[in-house]
Amino acid sequence: MNSVIIVGGGIIGLLSAYELDKSGVKVTLIDRQQFGQESSWAGGGIISPLYPWRYPDAVTRLAKLSQELYPALIQHMQQATGLDAEYLPSGMLVLGDYPNENPQAWAAKYDIQMQTVDAVEIQQLEPQINDQYQQGFWFPLVHQVRNPRLVALAKAFVQNTNITLIENQAVTDIISEAGKVTEIRTHESSYQADAYVVSCGAWTSSLLKQTGIDTGIKPIKGQMLLLKGPPGLVKHITLSEDRYIIPRKDGRILIGSTNEDCGFEKDTDPGVKKELLDYAIRTIPALNTLEIEHHWAGLRPGSTKGIPCIGEHPQLGNLFINSGHYRNGLVMAPASARLLSEIMLKKPRSLAEKDYALCDGNHNKN
Ligand SMILES: Cc1cc2nc3c(=O)[nH]c(=O)nc-3n(C[C@H](O)[C@H](O)[C@H](O)COP(=O)(O)OP(=O)(O)OC[C@H]3O[C@@H](n4cnc5c(N)ncnc54)[C@H](O)[C@@H]3O)c2cc1C
User: Looking at the domain covering 3-78+148-217+304-356, what would its CATH class be?
Assistant: First the structure.
């Protein structure tokens, strides 16, 4: 395989392009707008699944491999570009006791550093937190990345490679013949390669419908709030009530997020704004005085159990998919890109590819 066209330049497309280019493939990356302006921009950048013990093994394995790959990847891209993605070891504090769940067994199984913390330890870790919390779980090694800066970093990096970058052209048609894609078309042009990848995030199913399959990937809206705070007021990522608080290096604080199954609209809702702010103040009362700087929504590529589709199209031999990362696309991106390139280039696999295979609308085996 000498040439590949990747459709969709979010973090998944960008890192897939990076991995294939590294192996000497001639890559073209196409997006209907500028790269990295959708879910990969809108997210929180926690480099761990939320309540990580609740996910299927397939998600844990991808997340864990990514967590191993991230430090060298970031260092390599930062050195080459001089940009900083703010990849930081924030740690993640999950508040609550979860009596019917077993985070300890999960952590032991996957050799994840995690400790149970009591009220005193919670206060020591996060001095501004509401003192009602009696128990929690502390993940000291969880990092965050400032995702808009990560996509800017990845874009700057690939600009200095052999990858051909095409922005502001939507792919409208996938043309196939005798079980193979022969070209893809935009309104302006058509493009040919040996193989093709669709990594269109929440729009993956819309594009692939014409190839006769239903990936089951659908948009799930998440609303986020950004507060302007002083550096150091909040020290760690905290998670409770299915909401989270993320402190950025410059003091800004992200509050997220909703999980809304309402199609492709990205409207924000004043009721949700109040609900997210109330949650944040209930958890860390000192946030009461901070100015709200921004409120936005993004569309996650929702998939069954959060397991992405990585691999070959069930009917078209040279068409591949890397999509459906749902709530964990930033954490799973490096490993997903690595696995995709291993499958496409027939190299030994880092992970069991069958766990991520797409079976025409039946991607829920695990
Ligand atoms: C509010 C929120 C919070 C989140 N928090 C986290 C978190 O803390 N940690 C984490 O790991 N994940 C998080 N996520 C999830 C994560 O952001 C996504 O899983 C990830 O960004 C998906 O990346 P992607 O490249 O598949 O999709 P996207 O970033 O959406 O990229 C898809 C790209 O495809 C392009 N495209 C679509 N159709 C076409 C077409 N026809 N032709 C050409 N281009 C096309 C789009 O323009 C877009 O650039 C969050 C998401 C949201 C919304």
Answer: alpha beta
